[in-house]
C-alpha cells in the first residue's frame, strides 16, 4: 500500500509538470517536434543560425568555443564556418549589427536569442518562423506573422520558404464579425519545399533550445544515475528501518 | 538522565568532560521518547530541516557567483549556470529548493491541522512554527526578486506596493522598503543582504526554538493523545520509542523519498512546466514591458487569489494579511477537547477537508487571470477560507469531545 502511494506521488508530480507545459492550440499552431539529443540536427541548426540569424541577433551568453565543444564541431570547422571575421573563438556570439543602427532601421533592436527557447518556447519559435505571410498593410516589411502579429522582423527566410499568403474567413461571434485565419496558400516560391523548410526551421529551433540551456542533455543523462542511486539508497534505508522496527510492538 | 562517561583516559572521556556530547545524545536522541504511531505525515518536520540545510549549502555557492544589482544580477545568473562548473546543477537546485521548501512546510502544517498539534500544550510550538513560515515567505520573496528577471521585477512591484495600502504611513513605507522611487539597485542590494544574512539567521534561530519547544512538550501523534500520561515501569511512555534509532532510521527513508522526487524535478523538469521557474523570468527585468499576466510563484497564489477577490484594493490587502494571520489564532479558535480529527465527528472531518480543498483551489485561482468566472470562484472560495476559521470556533465546541482510546493505534509490521 505504501509503495503504491509513493508511485502515485511520482506519477502525479510528473503529470502536473507536463500538463502545465501543454496549452494553447489554433489551426496554424504546430509542435516543433525537435529532438535535443539529435547532434546532426543541432549542427545544422548552428550553421543555419550563423548564416541567417546572427547578422542581426546575438547569442550573448554562448561562446563559439563552448558551442563547438558541445556540438562536437572540429576546431578547423569552427574557425572556418562559425567564428565571425574579427572575432576570437573564445568570444561570445554577438550580432554584426550595431544596436543603434538596428533601432533606427527596425524601430526595435533585434533581441538576443540566448534564452528565447525558455522565455517563449521551442514551439513558439517554430510557429513564428513558419507563419510569415504577405501583408500589404505592413509597409515596413511587406509581411506579417500569426505568432507575433505586427512583428518588426522582415521575413529573412523568404528566399527559402517563399512568401505564402493567408486566407481568412469571416466569423460571426456575438453579433460582431471578425476575421479568422483559415489556411495558407503558396505565393512566391522559395528554394525549399514545405517539408524541407519545416526541417530547416526545426533544426534552427533545436539549436536555439540547446543555446537556451546548454547542459540539458548532460543533465538528463546524469539525472538517470542520480535517481537510480537515490532509489537504491531509499530501498536499503527502508530495509534497515524495517529490521530495527521489528522490536516495536 | 545522566550519560555514563565510558572508558577512562580515552579521547571520548576527555571530550565529554569538556563538551557534553554523550549527554546531549542521551537527552535529545536515545532518551527522547516519541510516539510509536507516527505515519507518513510525520516525515515533513525533519524534511523541512533537510531542505533548509540544502538551501543554505546551495545558497553559499550561488552567493559566490551572484552579483547583486540592477545591471549585474540577471547576467551573473546566466553566466554562472553556463560557465561555472556544476553551477548548472546547483543554481537550479536552489531555485527548485524554494518550491520544495513550501511543499514540505505546507504538508507539515496540514499535519498539524489534522491532528490538532497546535492545541495545548503546543500553542507556542505552533506560534514559533508560524513565525518560521512568515520569515520563510519573506526569504522566498526576496530570493525570487534577486535575479531581476521580468516576472521578479513585476511581481515585486505588486507585492511591495501592497504595503502602500497601509493608512497614513503606506507611501513612505513603500519608498523606505525599496530605497528608491522604483525597484532599482538599492532595492536589489538590500534584498540581497536580507536574503543571505538576516533572514537565514532569523530562520535558523526560530528553528532552534521550535525544536527546543518540541522537546519540552513532546510530539503529538495521529491519535492526539498524550503518551506522557501512560508511563511504563522504566519511567518511559509505554507508547513511546527512543527517537534514535527508530525515528532517525525512519526519517532517512523519508529523506531518500524526498531527494528522489527532488532529483526527478531538478534533472528532468527544473522549470516544472513554468510553475517553479516562470518563462518571463528568462527575460531580464523590463520596466516598460509587463508580462502577459502577473502572478506570484505558486506558493503565494492562495493569498494572491484572496487579494484579487476583493474589488477594493485596501480591503483586499487587509483580507490577504488576515488570511495568513488567521493560522496564528487556531490554538484558541479550536475549542474541542480532542486534538486529532480521528476522534472528532463527521462535521469536523468535512470542515477540515473543505479547507484543504479551498486552499488548493485558491492556489490554482491565483495562477489564473482575474477575469470572468475566476473572479466569482475566487470570491466563493475566499468566503469558504475564512468560513473555516469561524465555523471551527463553533463546531469544535460540540464536536470532538467524545471518548478517546487509552493507547495509540499501532499495528506492528
Tell me what you see in this structure.
The complex is a heterodimer of chains A (249) and B (413). Chain A has 249 residues and is of the alpha+beta class. The model of chain A is unreliable at 17-25 (pLDDT under 50). Chain A has helices spanning 2-21, 39-53, 64-70, 75-82, 99-106, 116-119, 122-130, 158-161, 194-212, 216-245; strands at 59-63, 92-93, 132-134, 143-145, 162-173, 176-189. Chain A is extended and about 85 Å long. In chain A, helix 2 crosses helix 9 (194-212) and helix 7 runs antiparallel to helix 9. Chain B is globular and about 75 Å long. The mean pLDDT of chain B is 95. Chain B is mainly α. Chain B is built from 15 helices and two strands. The A-B interface holds A 2, 5-6, 9-10, 13-14, 16-21, 61-62, 66, 114-115, 118-121, 212, 214-215, 218-220, 222-224, 226-227, 230-231, 233-234, 237-238, 240-241, 244-245, 248-249 and B 36, 40, 78-79, 81-83, 88-89, 241, 245-246, 249-250, 252-253, 255-257, 259-261, 263-269, 271-275, 279-283, 410, 412-413.
| Main β sheet profile of chain A | 2 strands, antiparallel
Number of helices of chain B: 15
Annotation, overall tally of beta strands of chain A? 6
Class inferred from helices and paired strands of chain A? alpha+beta
